[in-house]
Each structure stands twice: as structure tokens, then as C-alpha cells.
Amino acid sequence: MEKDMTKGSPMKLILGFAVPLLFGLLFQQFYSMVDTIIVGHYLGVDALAAVGATGSVNFLIIGFCMGVCSGFAIPIAQEFGAAHEVNLRKYVANSVWLSVLFAVVTTIAVSLLCRPILQMMRTPENIIDGSYDYIIIIFLGIPVVFLYNMTAAILRSLGDSRTPVIFLVMAAILNIFLDLLCIVTFQMGVAGAAVATVVSQAIAGFCCLLFMWKKFPILKLSREERKWDHDCVLKLCNMGIPMGLQYSITAIGSVILQSAVNGIGSDAVAAVTAGSKLSMLVVCPFDAMGSTMATYGGQNVGAGDLNRVDKGLKSCCLLGLIYSVLAVGIIYVFGRQMLLLFLDAGETGILENAYAFVTTNALFYFPLALVNIVRFLIQGMGFSKLAVFAGAFEMLARGLAGFLLVPYFGFSAVRFANPLAWIFADIFLIPAFFYVRKVMAGILDRQKE
Q1: Which parts of 43-141 fold into alpha helices (H)?
Q2: What is the pTM of this model?
Q3: Is 373 helix (H, G, I), strand (E, B) or coil?
Q4: What secondary structure letter does DSSP report for 162?
Q5: Which DSSP string do the residues of 62-75 spell out, in sequence order?
Q6: What's the pLDDT tens digit per position in 63-108?
């Protein structure tokens, strides 16, 4: 079931790995999209805004958890590329110990701070209770987030990007029925959408865990390999924590921007919520390219082949450019109709603002593609700490938009906040890659001596 990405055509390998991963990401978005569609149509605009107002703080915390899991998988991919199976299993075992620890601590901390954070973000009074009901359940489900993302990351690090998708598809279908059951039948409100999401992801996580245990002999751990290993833990933390912080630092900018949007009113929140849901669905291929390059970079650095890293980068950037052009056309032609998945046709003002938001973002999709491709490649090469600065640049851009532009230019400034963040990140990331490659070449040359 493992896939070795150190041999063969980089373009074919990247496509073969990214396509199943893309379906997984699409179904992850499907979770969120189904919640939004059902909430918007059955519970109304205020309920939609209540869920949307939690988006940035959700990304702040859940993004940290997902980033940590992705970082923990990088040493596993590198050891797989180097064919060091004993070390690989040690990293797997210690990533599990660390995931349990991080899940418990994070769940307790954010659950206690949930309402104060929403108040600090100036969440409108007419939606703050709904926002709290939704996000507290999501946060109580953080152990489930670690379960699915850690098992899926381990499978991907071994070259299997298909299996997590299969179980996520199953869970997504279940999510639809649970949403309707909890919201329409049991009248649980926005809390029902959160319950459906947590339960569905829990099932996907347990299925991944069971499959990994049954089907991957390379992961059969001895008693010695299961032990807590200080050196492994240190390297895992050096990879995982910076990646988690990168998501969180990026999200701090989103929190600042969300606070500014909240200040405009619940109609603006609803427009950004609908526009963001559509954008996240359309940009899934960029996320798939990024995750692919993390595994591709990790395995090929482990094999000591930087020329393949260069070829993979060029191939993936070409894919990113082609898709960016296609996505712009899709958004401009079908954007309004797609937004009706989340909004009622009678909400004409909100609909037009949401369309303006997504079309503006679409014009800058290639800079977003570069952010994902280059940042994850740098992380896969083992330089997670350096990639944190890209998140800092995104935070700075969104912070400037939230503090300086939105109060003066209103919703028009909100439209350009994300593109500004992507451009700021690229200004750092592109030179950073050439620096990382130079350092890595020196390390590999010394190892050969």
C-alpha cells in the first residue's frame, strides 16, 4: 500500500498522489458546506452568520491541531524515503503519544476560553449565543480532530493518499443524514451541525486507525519501539509545533479581520461566510498540491535527491497555474449560482457582496497556489520553523486590512484582505525556498564526504 515518490515521473507521481488527496479535501469541505447549506436554509441568516462568525477562531485552533499532525508526519516520510524502518516506527509511536497529550491540553484550554474569545472578537449580540453553541462542541471534539488527522497524515507519509479519502467519503455521507436528523428532526439548532461534524469525523478517524493497524506491516511496533523516546519527541515537536503555529499565526490575522467584519454587521458576516465557504471549496486543489509537496519533498530529501525536488516543484507550479486560470472562469461564470447553495435568492444585497468577495479572491489564486506549494515543500524538506514566517506575513497583511482598511473602506477592503495576505507570504516564501535548497545541498554534500 506504500508509495515510493523517489522514483518515476514527478508529474505523474504528484498527480497520482494529489488527486485522491483532493477528493479527501473536497469531502472535508463537504462537511462544512452541508452544515452551511442546511443552517442557512433551515435556520436563517442569523444562524448562518453565527456559524460564520466562528470561522476564524475555528481555523485558529483546529488549524493548529491539523498543522501539528502534518508536522509530526514529516520525519515519518523522511525515514520512509531513507528506508529506515525502525526509526520510522519510533516516530509513529511517539507521534501518537504527543497527539494524545496535545489533544487533552488543547481541548481543556480552548473550551474554557471559548466565550471570552468570541466577546473579544466583537461578535454581534444577536448571534453570539449561536456562535458559542456551535464552536464549543467543535472544540470538545478536538481529540477526534487529532485522531483523524494524525492517522491520515501517517498514511500519506507512506504514500497512501487514497485510504483516508475512502473513509472520509463514508463519513461525509453520514454527516448529511446526521445534519438533517439533528437540525430538522431534533431541532438542535446550530449545535446539531457541530454534533454531526464531530461524530462523522470520529468515524473516519477510527476507520483510518483500524485500517492502518491491519494493512501496514511496516507499522507493527515492537515493545521497544513503542516507548517514549526523547530524541524522537524533540524532532517531532521541532517539526509539528512550528507547523501548528504557522496555521495559528495565519489565523490570528483572520481573527483580526473577522473582528473588523463583525463590526460592519451580521449581513457582512453572512456574505463573507458564504463567500468563504465557496472559496474554500474551489481552492481545495491548492491544498492538495501543498500536502502532496510536503510528502514528495520529505521522501526525496530523505533519499538525498534535490534534483527531483526541483523537478517536482516545477511540475506542481505548472499544475497550479493551469488550475488558477480555470478556477477564475468558473467563479466568474457560475459564482452567483454556486452561492445560492448557502444563501436565499431573496437576500440580494448579501448575495452581491458575497459574489464580489469570491471574484476578487479568484483573481489572485495563483499567488495562493504558490503559498501552498512552496510553503509545504519547505516544511517537507525539514525547515518547518522557517515556514512559520510565511504565516507571520499573512497575519501582518490581514491585520493591516482589519485595523486600517476595513474601518475606512468597509466591505471593499474585506475583498482584498486575502489577496494581500497571499502576496505578502509569497514575498517571503520564494526567496526562502532558494535559501533552504542551498542549505540542504550543503548538508547532503557533507553527508557524502
Answers
A1: 45-52, 55-81, 85-120, 128-140
A2: 0.76
A3: helix
A4: S
A5: HHHHHHHHHHHHHH
A6: 899 989 988 998 998 898 888 899 999 999 999 999 999 999 999 9
